[in-house]
Amino acid sequence: IGAAIAGVLAADGAHVIGLDVPAARDALDATMRQLNGTALAFDIAAPEAPAQIAAALDELGVDIVVHNAGITKDKTIAKMTDAAWQSVIDINLSAQERIDDALLAGGILRDGGRIVAVSSISGIAGNPGQTNYATSKAGVIGRVESMAPRLSARGITINAVAPGFIETQMTAKIPLAIREAGRRMNSMSQGGQPADVAQTIAWLAQPGSAGVTGQVVRVCGQSLIGA
Ligand SMILES: NC(=O)c1ccc[n+]([C@@H]2O[C@H](COP(=O)([O-])OP(=O)(O)OC[C@H]3O[C@@H](n4cnc5c(N)ncnc54)[C@H](O)[C@@H]3O)[C@@H](O)[C@H]2O)c1
Fold first, then answer.
1. DSSP 3-state assignment of 164?
2. Which domains does the chain have, with CATH numbers?
């Protein structure tokens, strides 16, 4: 999904700065090379990451921040370890907050800017075996609602996008029967594509979406899961 977002924003004329973990550096470099973008390799969960990201972006500033990085560590609540709970909340939710704090405090995200955070339909209705993930993604929705009024004086909007089942490496890991249910139980009877999510994010990143803030937009084809 991140590569699709980068592709759509670059096609819309943005200079894209793509971020991924150091272990994904080669793929990140290749994607950014294709888009004439810039690659940043950081683990967003590292305590020093927000300051390092802010330092890397300080000179040029940014107009659009997309929080897309996310992980799953699915287990029923009885089998969920503290570590699996904490790491999912930290990467999917708290890291976004820390990074925004650093970008906003330093004036790196310019006035009139855009923040778009990737949530999930799991964050709207929950999902069995995904208590940690659903909590983190519900937190993303709460975060954009609570931040929107605070950012409005600077003309910055903040919104969330909640994808349903999208065909990616993340959903390829889901057991077959559940995967097929996720694919088919929506009005379009198929899985979504990363480009579907990317196009919605690009709309929220445009100047013309200035009247939309604090919202969550579902990109799920009326999925019954998460309804
Ligand atoms: N695929 C779906 O059906 C679906 C549905 C709803 C929401 N989402 C959300 O969309 C986003 C993208 O998901 P995807 O399906 O492309 O998953 P993916 O696993 O293919 O990609 C996730 C990316 O995040 C990066 N990442 C993970 N931890 C990181 C960290 N600590 N620091 C920096 N980068 C890190 C990974 O390296 C990877 O490139 C996630 O937030 C996910 O929760 C996906």
1. coil
2. 46-219 (3.40.50.720)
